[in-house]
Write a structure and sequence with these properties.
β2, α6 and β3 form a beta-alpha-beta unit. The chain has a 4-stranded mixed β-sheet, with helices on one face. The longest helix has 16 residues. It is α/β, with parallel strands linked by helices and 173 residues long. The chain has a single domain, classed as 4-Layer Sandwich (Purple Acid Phosphatase, chain A, domain 2), CATH 3.60.21.10. It is built from 7 helices and 4 strands; from the N terminus they run αααααββαβαβ. The protein is 42% helix and 10% strand.
Length: 173
C-alpha cells in the first residue's frame, strides 16, 4: 500500500471529523467541507473521542495530550456565545426547544474532577430553570451512550431524569 492508500483507508475507517490523527489532516478536510453549511445553519457541536486530541502533543508542542485542544480552539465561538463560557458543555433555546450539550468524554480524557463537578452543577441548575411553558421540549446531546460510558451516565442519569429531559441524542455508534 502507498501512503496515499493508507490515508484514504484511515479517512474511511476513523471518521471524517478526526482531529486526533495525522496532525488533524482528516479533520481539516472535514471542516473545510462543512464550513459552508455551518456558516449558514445553526449547528450544535459536542466533543467526542476523536476530538480528545491524544496525538496533539506530537503535532504541536502547545497542545497537551487528551485535553480537547483542537475542539476548544476550532469551536471557540460556541464558548463565547454560551451561557457557560465553555464549549464542552452549554445550553441554548431554539424555538420551543431547550437544548443542553454535555461531555461524557471528560470521564476518560484529561479527567478533571473540577470540570466534572462544574458540568454537573451547570446541568442541574440549567435544567431546573427551564420554563416548560415557553420551551416545552428539552433535548440533551452528548457523544456516547449509556452502554459505553457507564460512569458518566451514572452521574448524568439522575439529573436528566429528575428534570424530565424528553430526548437524548447520542452518537459514536
Amino acid at each position: 500500500m502507498t501512503n496515499k492508500t493508507l490515508t484514504l483507508y484511515k479517512f474511511i475507517f476513523t471518521g471524517a471529523y478526526d482531529f486526533d490523527s495525522l496532525a488533524s489532516l482528516i479533520g481539516n478536510g472535514f471542516m473545510t467541507l462543512a464550513q459552508g453549511y455551518m456558516a449558514i445553519k445553526p449547528t450544535a457541536v459536542v466533543e467526542g473521542n476523536h476530538e480528545a486530541c491524544t496525538a496533539c502533543i506530537a503535532s504541536d508542542p502547545r497542545f497537551e495530550s487528551g485535553n480537547f485542544t483542537q475542539y476548544k480552539m476550532r469551536f471557540h465561538s460556541v464558548s463565547l456565545n454560551s451561557n457557560t463560557g465553555n464549549n464542552r458543555y452549554y445550553s441554548f433555546n431554539r424555538g420551543i426547544t431547550h437544548f443542553i450539550v454535555f461531555s461524557a468524554e471528560a470521564y476518560l480524557y484529561a479527567r478533571s474532577e473540577a470540570f466534572l463537578s462544574n458540568q454537573l452543577a451547570f446541568m442541574s441548575a440549567d435544567l431546573a430553570a427551564v420554563d416548560r411553558k415557553a420551551t416545552p421540549w428539552v433535548v440533551a446531546l452528548c457523544h456516547k451512550d449509556w452502554t459505553m460510558e457507564t460512569e458518566a451516565f451514572n452521574a448524568f442519569t439522575p439529573v436528566l431524569l429528575q428534570n424530565k429531559v424528553d430526548v437524548l441524542f447520542v452518537g459514536h455508534v
